[in-house]
Amino acid sequence: AKKNGDSAMSIWLGVFLDGIPEAMVIGFMTQQRKLSLGFIAGVFLSNYPEALSAASLMRMKYGPIRIFALWGSLTIMTSVLAGVAAWALPGHICAQDIDWTWIIRELVEGMAGGAMLCMLSCVAIPESFHLADDAAGLLTLFGFLATMFIVAIDKSDAGTFLQC
């Protein structure tokens, strides 16, 4: 049970670290009125399986109040950080024909990707193969295909109805 709790906390920490730049990107995109349904769906799809697996592992070691407090703290942290990012970013940060908004957003998205890869390679993938054997690879493929489908929809006209 101790190993399950350690794995769960490692996944939670990965989601926490990934949530910081994710929240900043959500704030930047909201401020620029470029938040799309595809992006929201992608964030949900990337975080839901991690949260579900971590919460189920946490149940073996922690009580429901602690689990709720851990995930609730992530929700509050990302919401506040997204609001601060939207508030702190001026409408147009441009100087000498350089779009600083785009540069900041790409750097933050890169940090989010790095945190996610670190958590996946160190904790989530080994844990999934331990618990699900060969099915883990197939499920990973389906998750990747679902993400690619959402990205394709988001890049088309169908994903732009949330943009203002």
Observed structural traits:
80% helix, mainly alpha, globular, disordered C terminus, single chain, 5 helices, 164 residues, two-stranded antiparallel sheet
Description of the structure:
The longest helix is centred in the C-terminal third of the chain and has 33 residues, at 100-132. The protein contains 5 helices and 2 strands. With 164 residues, it is mainly α. The radius of gyration is 17 Å and the shape is globular. The chain has a two-stranded antiparallel sheet. The chain has helices at residues 2-31, 37-58, 64-88, 100-132, 135-155, and strands spanning 94-95, 98-99. 80% of the residues lie in helices and 2% in strands.
Would you kindly provide a brief summary of this structure?
With 164 residues, the protein is mostly helical. It has 5 helices and 2 strands; from the N terminus they run H-H-H-E-E-H-H.
Strand content: under 5%
Report the order of strands and helices.
Answer: HHHEEHH
Shape, per Cα inertia axes: globular
Overall pLDDT score: 74
Task: Please state the structural category.
Answer: mainly alpha
**Count of distinct strands:** 2
Largest beta-sheet characterization? 2 strands, antiparallel
From the alpha carbons, calculate the radius of gyration and give it in angstroms.
17 Å
The helical percent reads over 70%
Q: What's the arrangement of strands in the largest beta sheet?
A: 1-2
Low-confidence stretches: 157-164
Number of contiguous helices: 5
Distance between the termini: 48 Å
